[in-house]
Amino acid sequence: MEDELSRIFYIFDDDGSGTIDFYKLKKVAQEIGEQVSDKTLHDMIRAADLKQSGSVTLEEFLRVMRKMKLIS
User: Fold this and answer.
1) Other Cβ atoms within 10 Å of 25 Cβ, number
2) Radius of gyration of the chain (CA)
3) DSSP states of 16-68
């Protein structure tokens, strides 16, 4: 499951920078037709961003997935 979630992370990380930021998250939400407010997207980034860098690394992404019990 962790491998699959890593692949999902890299769908968001379309430029290969190793991070997901607000703009990448918003782009994917729009592409899949999700109506999510900018505030909610910023909140999602802040909740996962332990390093307070303004973006989410693969490690931070997987930590969130573990908390959501999507992986152990």
Assistant:
1) 20
2) 12
3) SSSEEEHHHHHHHHHHTT----HHHHHHHHHHH-TT-SSEEEHHHHHHHHHHT
Q: Is the pLDDT of residue 8 over 70?
A: yes
Element housing 57 (H / E): strand 55-57
pLDDT digits (tens, 9 = 90+) for 33-70: 999 999 999 999 999 999 999 999 999 999 998 888 76
* Token pair listed for 72: 């152990």
The tokens describing 19, both together, are 């991070």
Instruction: Give the model's pLDDT for residue 68.
Output: 85
Structure tokens of 48? Answer: 């996962």
